[in-house]
Amino acid sequence: METALIDIKKKVDAGLRISESDAFALLSSNDLLSIGMMADTVRRRKNGDTTYYIVNRHINYTNVCMNGCKFCAFHKKPGDNGYTLSLDVIREKAVEGKAAGATEFHVVGGLNETLPFSFYIDMLHTLRDVDPSIHIQAFTVVELAFIAEIAKLPLDETIRLLKEAGLGSVPGGGAEIFHPDVRSALCEKKISGEEWLAVSRAVHKAGLHSNATMLFGHIERKEHIVDHMSRLRSLQDETKGFLSFIPLVFHSGNTEYTGIRAPTGSELMRMLAVSRIFLDNFPHIKSFWIMLGLKMAQLSQFFGVDDIDGTVTEEKITHAAGASTPENISRAELVEMIEGGGFHAVERDTLYRHIKR
Ligand code: SF4
User: Fold this and answer.
1) Residues lower than pLDDT 50 in the chain
2) Mapped to the 3 state alphabet, what secondary structure does 108-171 carry?
3) Which of 79, 230, 253, 303 is the most exposed place for a label (fewest CB within 10 A)?
4) Which of 64, 70, 111, 252 for mutating ligand 1's site (highest number of atoms within 8 Å of CB)?
């Protein structure tokens, strides 16, 4: 093991928190197997050999978005040929999801100024009417801030009304990279990192859980990654409201960064492992197989990951940026992928309760 990692390993073995400079050292190291072993120690302490998956249905209700983030291939500018699903179509997709055994509707979209606040409430009612037992995880943190603006209501009140209409938890997207040097280049119109954290704090205060994402593999540097994770760790110390951390690997196709060098396999695994080691107060680390690919997602289980997301069905966002993975996967294929790596596949609901079929 590299000498720089020996003291970090001692901390990990003792269950102690590692520092920001430790995280930087790990991100700078090529000793991938040592880093993986440390992440595996934390993973097994928290989750044993369990890897979770979920049967869910994604519904991307509109791709019209006024933010125009440079890394986003999904959105269409207002006035271009974007789409917005009608409530009838949303209901049809939800009915399909229910028939396929979904326990979660995963609902996110763009910031579409033509949609009134009542659309969001009606959409939640529509989904709830299809089956009130199916959990609705909806709206990135960025959408929540936008919906409050549209509603012309304080954020807390907006969240309260959405929760009353059926919102069960928040997926946590839109975090990208908090540091202003990167954020202003990637997505200057998006809420700031501080605002993202403040909205998440309000979500947790309202009694809802959420996740936290980080988009990496573009123009960020290691110090930005450490800063991002550090801010999340501090908020989690305060609220304990995050269920999982989801490092999302950037796909450059059809974006302003087309052709940018993609992270290598070992860089991907190192990022996941370091997040598992650093975010000691996050119960779960998720690798989104849609972005990593099935084989890398399987390997990620050895690098701290205990959740490989779900059956998804009809993923639009990463595929708009050129992802070559399927748009969905069967439960049997997910289980085979997890167990083929020697881990124990457990179906979960959104809140990580075990599902028995
Ligand atoms: S990332 Fe989200 S907020 Fe940014 S342009 Fe795409 S849909 Fe809009």
Assistant:
1) none
2) ECCCCCCCCHHHHHHHHHHHHHHCCCCEEEECCHHHHHHHHHHHCCCHHHHHHHHHHHCCCEEC
3) 79
4) 111
pLDDT in tens, 201-228: 999 999 999 999 999 999 999 999 999 9
Q: How far is the CA of 140 from the centre of ligand 1 (A)?
A: 10
The model scores a pTM over 0.90: yes
Environment class of 306 (CB within 10 Å of its CB; exposed 0-12, middle 13-18, buried 19+):
buried
Beta bridge partners of 60: 108
Which residue has the CA at smallest separation from atom 2 of ligand 1? 110
| pLDDT confidence of residue 121 | 98
Q: Report the residue among 66, 71, 72, 188 best suited for mutation to probe ligand 1: largest number of ligand atoms under 8 A from its CB.
A: 72
Q: Which of 187, 195, 199, 257 to mutate to test the pocket of ligand 1 (most atoms within 8 A of CB)?
A: 187
> Which atom of ligand 1 is closest in space to residue 176's alpha carbon?
1
Question: What pLDDT is stored for residue 90 in this prediction?
Answer: 98
CB within 8 A of 200, min separation 6: which ones? 141, 170, 172, 210, 212, 235, 239, 241, 242
pLDDT at 318: 63
**Domain positions in the chain:** 19-347
Tokens 């991307």 belong to residue: 60
- CATH code for the structural domain at 19-347: 3.20.20.70
For residue 317 and ligand 1, the question of a CB distance below 6 A is answered with no
Point out the ligand 1 atom lying closest to the alpha carbon of residue 66. Answer: 8
pLDDT of residue 19: 98
* Centre of ligand 1 from the C-alpha of residue 44, in Å: 35
